[in-house]
Amino acid sequence: MGVSGISATADARQGSLLGAIQQRNGDLDALRSSLGANDLTGAQTAFAALLNDRQQIQGLRQSQGITTTTRKPVVDDLNTLQNALKSGDLSSAKADLAKLLTDLQQAQKHRHHHGGARSSAASIFGSSDGDADDASSGAASGFDSIDLQI
Question: Is the pTM above the cut of 0.90?
């Protein structure tokens, strides 16, 4: 394979990752909207899609040699949010999502404080540090430059 073939393959992988990240961002918006509208079924569906997106993004990153980890507070937030949604507790789910987003923002600040590089690939639930990394395409209002590793 020539150099142009290698470049095209890398571009395709990056494009697949970006597409998966954009899908995840849309699912995050759907979760936020569903919770805002007190739509439990919609929130549960959006959360399930987010978890599926996370697995897809991690798989794509691993295929590119990018290792990912998730910080414990983020994992705890995800579990708490999932439990609230399973039990139908919309009030707790809203609070849990807010805490998750706050913890992800803190993780991003921590990463950048310690010199973590940002990639132009974009993300909201999958990063090389685990919690926050790439710029997203505007998923969560106020969080459009956060990569949420979920």
Answer: no
